[in-house]
Amino acid sequence: MTIGNTLNKYLWEKRIILIFSKHKDISLFKEQKNQFSNLQDETNERDLVFIEIFKDKNAKYESLQDKFNPNSSDFKIILIGKDGGIKLNSSTVVTHEKIFSLIDSMPMRQMEMLQ
After folding, report:
1. Residue 48 near residue 15, CB atoms below 8 Å
2. What is the pTM of this model?
3. pLDDT attached to residue 69
């Protein structure tokens, strides 16, 4: 699967969390952001990059909106693995515990934890 030019620079280096929202003031967006507040060490350890995409069609992320949220849902969170594959796709808030657990169960992450 190709993840698109905007994300190619992260391939095999970072895991990506895309957060799509109608705007920054939507409660689901705020709740999702709060899931990762004060967890910088944990997100860095898992090589996570967060990209927020709003419906205002920011040209930089328009291709991501078209590719991963074509129906322009008001809220969506997607986890993309280092291999470029979609590991999680949800239209509801996902806890940081669930995301960290999912990442920690991935074979590549298992190898990272052994090093």
Report:
1. yes
2. 0.91
3. 85
User: CB under 8 Å to 15, separation ≥6 — which residues?
Assistant: 46, 47, 48, 49, 79, 80, 81, 82, 87, 103
Mean residue pLDDT of the chain comes to 91
Q: CA distances (Å), 8 to each of 13, 16, 58, in order?
A: 10, 11, 18
Gap between the Cα atoms of 109 and 48, Å rounded: 12
114: region left, alpha or beta (phi > 0 left; psi from -120 to 50 alpha):
alpha
Amino acid at 39: L
> What region does 101 belong to: left with phi over 0, alpha with psi -120 to 50, or beta?
alpha
Q: How confident is the model at residue 71 (pLDDT cuts 50, 70, 90)?
A: confident
**Which residue in this structure is represented by tokens 């090589």?**
47
CA 24 from centre of chain: 16
Render pLDDT for 10-61 as a digit per residue (tens, 0 to 9). 999 999 999 999 889 999 999 999 999 999 999 999 999 999 998 876 667 7
